[in-house]
Amino acid sequence: MLLSKPVVSEAHRKNPDGTKRENWLVYCGTDGGQAVKYYRSSKAKADKLAKMMAEKVKRVGQAATALTTAQTYDAAEAFQMLVRAEAGISLTECARQWIERNTDALECRTARIGDTLADYLRRFNQNKVHDHAVRTALTKFVKPFGDERRMSELDRSAAESFLSLYDNPKSFNLNRGYVLAFLNWARKNGKYAQAQYNACLCIERKREPYRQPCFFHADTVEKIMRWCESQPDADMLVPKFAIGFFAGVRSDEISRMDWKDVHFSEKEIRIETPKGVTGTPPRIVGMSENLIAWLKPYSKDAGKLCYSQSAITDRKKLIKEKTGIDFDSKEMRNVARHTFATMHAAFHRNFELTAAEMGHGASTSVLMKHYQSITSKSDATAFWSIMPKSKSDETAVAS
Q: Which residue has the higher pLDDT, 71 or 206?
């Protein structure tokens, strides 16, 4: 349509019976050689339409004058291509159809960093240490860009710049994992391009020097368990340390457990709220004979299984004071779980079974790398033979 101002004029048209009727014509120029005109029954209605069309022409004209020379020629060339192809659609309709067919790609380009990160972090339980670590790392990663910048700006160079802050191989690899997990989630949800994610995947892990996992030998574990059973509050201490050492359950998982989760008849413990993102399914761990012996004297139908984490931390300090055994330092973190893995692998020599008990799924590579030859079979045998002192407890287990 030519960009001309609409003109209102009086027009006389004939009715079907041949009589004349008064009309008002709104002439809007030509389109493809054809006159574009509208009729209205009164001058007021015609003026209203003309005003509306004039505003539209003005908007189109302003948009047209805002185009660069290259954009104008590009639009003309695109229009001619549609004409030659006899597509039968306008350039505007062609653009609309392209947008509809490429919605996912456009969303990927326009996704905002702040919204995407917020959606990702909602998957985690905010009360867990892991969530805090992930939140802190990713907030630091995106901080230079701001919430309103696009996800596409978080490219490989951005990831490398963030990871350059970590000289320690372990810290580097840990934060690399946080970043890749976030970008992979964004990719799966159409907010990040596959090609950009593939580029970030090429950032290599740093080789970490081998470090033997912290663990206790059988005599040390026995000393801890003997101290626990001698305390007035043994009913709140023994279950915590027994399940940690002899079932390999994580400390925060034990703190959330209830006695109704312990099933002596099936020789199983059900972990209803395991570590992981929100929605992680419950996990089942088996109960060894010595674990059953340690738990039986304190068992209840229901109720809190042990003290809270803060109270247990105080008891660990007391254990260090009374026995000289330190397992509350940063280096000894998760020592009970590591001890279980070490002793279970050494005793059974079945890494698939050990992986299943620890909730690692089908992967045994980590277990074989870290726990394959740490301790002897005799040490493991002694570990699984640690029983409560009381003869009455042994009799109860045997019955």
A: 206
